[in-house]
Specification:
With 353 residues, the chain is an alpha+beta fold. The chain contains eight helices and 14 strands. The strands form four sheets. Strands 3, 5, 6, 7, 8, 9, 12 and 13 form an eight-stranded mixed beta sheet that branches. A hairpin with a 2-residue loop joins strand 10 and strand 11. Helix 5 packs antiparallel against helix 7. The longest helix has 21 residues. It is globular, with a radius of gyration of 27 Å.
Length: 353
């Protein structure tokens, strides 16, 4: 009884204070402080899981709406105009850098594979409506499918870089180990090639799925055939080789958003609030290198200093012979106890508006 009376009325320095009222004041003050320190942050542009590179970050709702509208209008314009990337209706451009696998078939060569990459104009596929991954990209919509549900996907290859072999000599084997680790290189892959791509539409897994559908999966991409899932016993703490961290141990795709351009917005204020409209000035951001650039540079230096390195587009017979031997060995003994890599990697943030 005495405790209840003291709880209702506590005497402190001659003043009567009710704890309940005091707690309410502190609670209201805490809410006010939280409101004052709240900062709006949003990413109107996203990157696929394990993809690195440039990403726009909005600290104003009006910029998030402005940038999202630029992307939406670009996709609509590309689909209506058939892929004219530099049309007046496109006020935002995104370019990607990636490393793809070259796996010549029985009737092809590395030279023909590279020529195929260079001859692409607008690469067009249709994305199957599905929430599951890997996504399915087809050159034509199946006859028995509802065509309206398949999303048209467009991209263009703007640059085909150096071809680097990954079998046949010490520098190539070192490059292979740096990119995939010990067991990660996919069967049949004898070289890699760096590409730059402009994305004309924005679909989930678009670059990964479209290139894989054409026979050029990205290095490190287990889902689309660009890497072999590592055996559980081989997964451990990432190690450095030749001073660099191996990509095969880091679960990172060889895919980077290397360039981002958009029209700088003007802030407009009216009775409805703040909004943003395009100006005539372009904001341009770019990255000069990627996480695999050091590996390719080391390979190039070894190629210049060693006579044993096989030329990228000539003397392919030793490489093709080794590929056939690897294929025969793989059929006799298949590795077991594989585990797919699934953890995400934060994208590098370059633009903060």
């Amino acid at each position: 009884m005495l405790w209840q009376e003291r709880k209702e009325d506590v005497s402190l320095q001659g003043q009567s204070i009710k704890p309940k009222d005091n707690d309410n004041k502190r609670r209201r003050r805490g809410k006010t402080e939280k409101k004052q320190h709240a900062i709006y942050v949003a990413t109107p542009q996203r990157l696929d899981q394990n993809t690195s590179g440039l990403v726009a970050v909005a600290t104003k709702k009006c910029f998030a709406a402005y940038f999202a509208e630029l992307l939406r209008k670009k996709t609509s314009a590309q689909l209506s105009q058939g892929g004219s990337s530099r049309s007046d209706d496109c006020k935002v451009h995104k370019a990607y850098r990636c490393l793809v696998c070259l796996s010549p078939g029985a009737e092809s060569s590395m030279a023909s594979e590279v020529k195929k990459l260079k001859d692409y104009g607008i690469m067009r596929h249709y994305l199957e409506p599905s929430i599951r991954a890997p996504k399915r990209f087809l050159a034509d919509i199946p006859h028995d499918a509802e065509s309206a549900a398949w999303a048209e996907s467009l991209l263009t290859i703007t640059r085909v870089g150096q071809v680097c072999t990954v079998v046949g000599n010490e520098p190539s084997e070192t490059l292979s180990e740096n990119l995939w680790g010990i067991h990660g290189r996919p069967q049949g892959c004898i070289a890699v090639c760096e590409l730059e791509i402009e994305l004309l539409t924005g679909r989930t897994h678009q670059i990964r799925g479209q290139l894989a559908a054409e026979g050029f999966p990205l290095v490190g991409d287990v889902q689309y055939g660009g890497a072999v899932a590592q055996p559980t016993e081989d997964l451990g703490k990432p190690e450095k080789r030749d001073g660099f961290l191996s990509l095969g141990d880091s679960e990172e795709l060889c895919l980077q958003c290397c360039s981002l351009e958009f029209l700088e917005p003007h802030l407009a204020v009216d009775s409805t609030g703040e909004s943003m409209v395009p100006s005539q000035r372009w904001k341009k951001f770019s990255l000069s290198g990627s996480s695999w650039t050091d590996f390719l540079d080391a390979y190039s230096c070894a190629e210049l200093s060693s006579e044993s390195v096989t030329s990228s587009l000539s003397d392919e017979e030793p490489l093709l012979t080794q590929r056939r031997e690897e294929s025969h060995d793989a059929r006799r003994q298949r590795p077991t106890n594989y585990r797919k890599q699934s953890s995400s990697r934060l994208a590098q943030t370059s633009t903060l508006l």
